[in-house]
## 1
Amino acid sequence: MKSHRTEKLDVLLDEEKIRQRCRELGEQITRDFEGEEVHVIGVLKGAFVFLADLVRHIELDVSIDFLGLSSYGSRTESSGVVRMTSDLSIPIKGRHVIVVEDIVDTGLTMKYLLENLQTRMPQSLAVCTLLHKPANTKVDVPMNYVGFEIPDEFVIGYGLDDAEFSRHLPYIGIVRDA
Ligand code: 5GP
């Protein structure tokens, strides 16, 4: 895909690598929750592509919901101040919840989210993130399923945006500085 926005990209994770890892994570979740129903919650907007691919590899009874979060801060630096832009449509009390995120960077967003969801009394609460940047951790959050650990670079594509563009790219790329 060619556009002036993709000319400055280095591919970090190509489609095949991501597809393979989604399959592995789905199989792992299937094994871990054998005989149970799982309730998958996608964090909008970034997780929509990953969630769609992941759930198709989960061979269990799966229900799905979304919530919207937006964190204040500059393009590359999270402030940790998180706003819920849309809430869940289904109560999670008594359910096995798996939160699906695109990326855990400082961990501040996930910490906020887990604290919020925990008050709603799910039976269990697990986290599945496609990407994790360990170098940037400010708070430790439990991550049960991690797709890839990546270096401390700003990445886009496969749901992740660059000022709302480029979420549709089928791969994950690093933006090279001009
Ligand atoms: P946190 O620092 O709270 O763990 O991450 C906050 C949010 O910042 C993530 O959910 C994600 O939306 C955004 N973010 C963090 N690192 C990146 C990145 O490399 N690329 C993009 N597009 N967003 C990021």
## 2
Amino acid sequence: MKFSVPRRTATLAVVAAMALGGLAGTTASAAPGAALAAPDIPLANVKQHLTDLQSIANANGGNRAHGRTGYKASIDFVKAKLDAAGYTTTVQQFTTSGATGYNLIADWPGGDPNQVLMAGAHLDSVSSGAGINDNGSGSAAVLETALAVSRAGLQPTKHLRFGWWGAEELGLVGSKYYVANLPTTERAKVSGYLNFDMIGSPNPGYFVYDDDPTIEQTFKSYFAGIGVPTEIETEGDGRSDHASFKNVGIPVGGLFTGASRVKTSAQVQKWGGTATAFDRCYHSSCDTTANINDTALDRNSDAVAHAIWTLSGGTTTPPGKVFENTADVAIPDNGAAVTSTVDVTGIAGNAPATLKVDVNIVHTYRGDLVVDLVAPDGSVYNVHNRSGGSADNLVATYTVNASTEVANGAWKLRVQDKAAQDTGYISGFKLTFP
Ligand code: TRP
Ligand code: ZN
Ligand code: CA
């Protein structure tokens, strides 16, 4: 079903996103190119994995917690499926709180070893229950996506690696251990890490992490395509394993359907459900197979596959030199222009006649916006002038004839919001010199 969001009132998510801020600095992540369409992930398969994880808990004192037999049994279960599907699996051991913990890493053979796309989920539960939403849901969706990669015989441009982390519930211990033991040279090859922790909450919201702009946009595009509105995840940035990767500079993203926070009435309007906790069984004994919203699990599982297909199949390092600023810049409502700057260095002579300008602006009404590229000497090239009306966001690539400009120097993206009420922020600005 297609939702219609009242255009001039849906500013909440953007305000929250601005408060959170984003990753600053320059990255080299390439825009995804044309990729094969991802398969529809069968919900029945994902649910079967949850049933199996529930059985493992039932046979092991009711949980799958770090240091308990149900955890190792969960690792063995996932590993066997991946081995049978042709993955190269590794079990990594660590010790925390006086018990052995395990991470499971699965590499899909092939792809560029210098560009690794990772996706992962924590496999441990808390000791009070089976942990089917937290985090059987993410574990099962990542597993089924990995199995779909095998069924499709996917040969992506990037190398694919999947991870199931131990002892997340003790403070992201397993994922921190993995990252700490990944040599610096190997870390630099990880072009992105996608995290899935709680994606089948019984009273779901559809939250996308506000981190790497390309990853974030990939998820948002998926949900836009099925007509499901999303919001930026704000129930605790850094509360799951993506933080371990983000902390060492790896671009991250992910999905979440909500934990103990209460759904607002505005969110009930948007997504249905009730104005109660997203997951009333969070960290409790009722987090069983009954604690799953099938629609949320289905959509999010398909979104996992969409992201893996899209982000792994894209063109590699774009030809030429790329200069990018991914720091978020708030755009004041109906106010002064703001800018995001990239410093271009190392290019002889003038800029090209085909300077590629990638603009990523998150906004609730792009018809409010005037967007210019400003050359180092102050010359102005208008790329967007209040067109597009009530559509959200301005995510576009423009080609600018900048052949009369000296290439090196500070180039600015200048954005002004010219009408009251709707707001947003610059999420990314990138120049590509062919
Ligand atoms: N990781 C948390 C847990 O397992 C759940 C959680 C809370 C979460 N807030 C989050 C996960 C935000 C992802 C994003 O207890
Ligand atoms: Zn948890
Ligand atoms: Ca406005």
